[in-house]
Design a protein that fits this description.
Blueprint (H helix, E strand, L loop, with lengths): L2 H12 L3 E2 L23 H25 L3 E8 L5 H8 L8 E5 L5 H4 L5 H4 L8 E5 L8 H4 L1 H5 L12 H18 L2 E9 L2 H13 L9 H7 L2 H15 L6 E5 L3 H18 L9 H16 L1
Parallel strand pairs: 2-4, 2-5, 3-4, 5-6
Antiparallel strand pairs: 1-6
The protein binds adenosine-5'-triphosphate and magnesium ion (MG).
């Protein structure tokens, strides 16, 4: 399949899930089981489509790297067992590791807490020409930190800054930060892998029942499941306040793993394709240099 055709298909796959105007966003309008007419029997076809997508993505990444001016930051947020790790692994499987940087953000360290919250993320922003991946991110600051206020109290903020406008301020700062990145050539694309509570239960059970999946189970994940509704509210408010035309959120239906991977791949493809990247043209001096080198090589 030609890259052009893949890009066209990518737009079709992502359109229903792209949120560029947070004001109108309602999480309940997005079905975690949506598959746009595909069904389980399409698994093989989907695999093939993902393979084509991964190939196209590798081509686009090569141009991004060669051009060396833009960078793309992909942010993955989700409830546990929604498939963040698998999506990252499969979608990025064809890209050149040299042009890709992945960071996972866990509970902040003592050193992190001694700084403002963007500090640890700033240090991990992608270099020009690279794709950066944040597996969780500064968005945890309006998600887990909002759901569990004890995290906020560990942040050593002056008490007068802990008023009820703290979340509004964080949203404004995050919008401002992402605008700053965009103004400096770093595009931010955000994914919420939208898994249903029912599917999460099924995946947790399979982690308990299958020995090869036991290692993935954590009691902490079970505890967080108890706060499901609080998280859903926090996600909705976060997306409402931070989805913009230039820094969209993709609400990826995540109850079916292969479908969610196709949507993520499509979104990355469309982001790179929108940059209209071409390999850098070399100037007349460089062309002379190349011709001279060729002559010299052909002499012997
Ligand atoms: P996996 O379970 O697939 O390995 P994960 O991203 O869930 O991946 P964990 O080590 O299980 O990784 O969990 C990391 C935890 O760190 C999450 O519960 C997350 O909410 C928490 N975390 C991340 N950032 C912050 C933050 N700024 N403040 C408090 N907790 C945070
Ligand atoms: Mg976890």
């Amino acid at each position: 399949m030609k890259t052009k055709e893949i890009i066209k298909r990518a737009h079709k796959l992502t359109n229903p899930f792209r949120v560029t105007d947070g004001g109108k966003f309602r999480l309940k309008d997005f079905d975690p089981g949506e598959m746009l007419g595909y069904d389980e029997s399409d698994k093989e076809r989907a695999k093939e489509l993902l393979e084509h997508g991964v190939q196209a993505l590798a081509e686009l990444q090569d141009k991004l790297y060669a051009y060396d001016k833009w960078a793309v930051l992909l942010i993955f947020q989700a409830m546990d067992a929604a498939g963040k790790d698998g999506a990252i692994k499969h979608v990025m499987s064809g890209v050149n590791p040299q042009g890709c940087q992945v960071y996972s953000f866990k509970s902040p360290s003592a050193e992190d807490l001694d700084h403002s919250y963007l500090w640890r993320c700033m240090k991990c922003l992608p270099n020009r020409g690279n794709i950066g991946i944040f597996n969780r991110s500064y968005y945890e600051e309006t998600l887990v930190v909002r759901v569990h206020s004890e995290f906020l109290h560990k942040q050593k903020l002056p008490p007068e800054l802990l008023g009820k406008d703290i979340w509004e301020n964080r949203f404004r700062d995050i919008r401002g930060f992402e605008r700053y990145l965009a103004n400096n050539g770093i595009l931010t694309v955000k994914f919420f892998l939208n898994v249903s509570k029912k599917e999460q239960k099924r995946r947790f059970l399979s982690r308990l029942e299958l020995p090869e999946k036991n290692w993935k189970f954590s009691a902490a994940d079970m505890a967080e499941r108890g706060f499901w509704d609080d998280y859903q509210k926090a996600y909705e408010d976060t997306i409402r306040n931070t989805a913009t035309k230039h820094t969209p959120w993709y609400i990826v239906p995540a109850d079916n793993k292969w479908f969610s991977r196709i949507v993520v791949a499509a979104a990355v493809i469309e982001t790179l394709a929108d940059l209209d990247l071409e390999y850098p043209q070399v100037g007349p001096d460089k062309l002379k240099e190349l011709a001279a080198a060729k002559r010299q090589l052909l002499k012997k």
